[in-house]
Amino acid sequence: MKNQWKIFIILFFGFSHQTWSDNPDYFSPKAGFAKELEETRNSIVLTFDDGPLLETTPVILQTLEDFNSFLPTPVRATFFLSGKSLVENYEVDSMGYIKKPGTENLKSIELVEKIIKAGHFIGNHGFTHSRMGSPYLDHHKNLKISISELMEVHKVIERFLTPNDDLNHHWFFRAPYGNWKESRAEDYNSHEELKQYIGPIFWDIGGEVKFSEKGTPIDAADWNCSHHQKLQTLCHNQFSKMDLQECLVWQCARGYLNSSYLKVNFKGGIVLLHDIQELTTHMLPYVLRVWSGVNPYMDKDPELGKKLESFVKTFRFENAQVFSFKNLNQIQYFKSYDSRLIDQPPVE
Q1: Cis amide bond preceding 52, omega within 30
Q2: Claim to verify: residue 193 and residue 303 sit in the same structural domain
Q3: Per-residue confidence of the chain (348 residues) as pLDDT tens digits?
Q4: Which of 141, 267, 298, 309 is the most buried (most CB within 10 A)?
Q5: Buried b (16+ CB within 10 A) or exposed e, 211-240
Q6: What is the reported pTM?
């Protein structure tokens, strides 16, 4: 009980009554996943990783716009951008880390502009999507590589970031794979620009495909749903009349939704999605239909609208709790650790 309110989640750092200059250490030294963050109780916080991608990110933005046109408070997602999605002609070293940053991809930059114009936020996801907890980066000679993984992305997105000089605007970093190490926090907290980031940001929903004892999806990962063998078997055995890809979309959405509702004392949380996945473009309307309680497609796209309602009835989400939507800037972050912090292995 004594330490119950020493709250920091590995996810975040923040400060309730202090300025940024009062708190120079924004990165967490510990790798873990926060559970039951009070500010996200009964709320959904949408995040998208690895983009932008020309073929899929615009579809994600359009879906969010479709739902926002029906919601009193619009959904404001955070897109964690990858350097290799922002530039071209870059080079990596023998271990896969940044060696030469290359030049900006103008079409990707246009997508970033669209994300910002639509009212969403952006974050830093590193350049090469490499493991930031790797022993390779522990060597002092590789400190420059470690810094470059974040700085080369920061240089591209800096122009789009709102100055984080108050508690309403923060800069965020998410570690790829959920892979982190204390020494990275020390490195970044000593860097003039990087110490302004809050991170690493992790998630509550969407890290892996999981099943109940009865074989029901109770969590999912959009990057893995399309080729997950157990999900395919479920579709073949119980939904054989459905198109396989459509069934996988349904089952993936079912996993995300169940993960958000099945916790006993805590519902909702931070959702991990990927705007580079085609499956996500198809799945997003289903999860938003249930979480928001609205269906914007009955007139705009009746075929899709009917599919959403069929999904809701099939899996009995008719009376599911409607969540409010928050963004990362609306959450207070604390430097000390929450006693509920749970360490987990990195997501592959």
Answers
A1: yes
A2: no
A3: 434 333 333 333 332 223 333 444 577 765 555 554 566 678 999 999 999 999 999 999 999 999 999 999 999 999 999 999 999 999 999 999 999 999 999 999 999 999 999 999 999 999 999 999 999 998 888 999 999 999 999 999 999 998 765 555 678 899 999 898 888 888 898 898 898 888 888 898 999 999 999 999 999 999 999 999 999 999 999 999 999 999 999 999 999 999 999 987 789 989 999 999 999 999 999 999 999 999 999 999 999 999 999 999 999 999 999 999 999 888 765 433 332 333 333 444
A4: 267
A5: beeeeebbbbbbbbbbebeebbebbeeebe
A6: 0.88
- Residue 2 located in a structural domain: no
Q: How many domains does the chain have?
A: 2
Yes or no: say if 109 and 78 are a contact pair by the CB < 8 Å rule: no
105, 214: one domain: no
- Residue found by looking up tokens 């470690």 in the block: 146
d(CA 39, CA 334): 12
The tokens of 190 are what? Answer: 């000593």
CB 34 within 8 A of CB 10: yes
> Helix, strand, coil shares of the chain as percentages rounded to 5?
40, 15, 45
Structure tokens at 97: 């880390």
Determine the residue type at 296: P
SS3 assignment, position 28: coil
Kindly state whether residues 101 and 122 are assigned to the same domain: yes
Q: How far apart (Å, rounded) are the C-alpha atoms in residues 51 and 108?
A: 9
Block residue for tokens 């959450």: 331
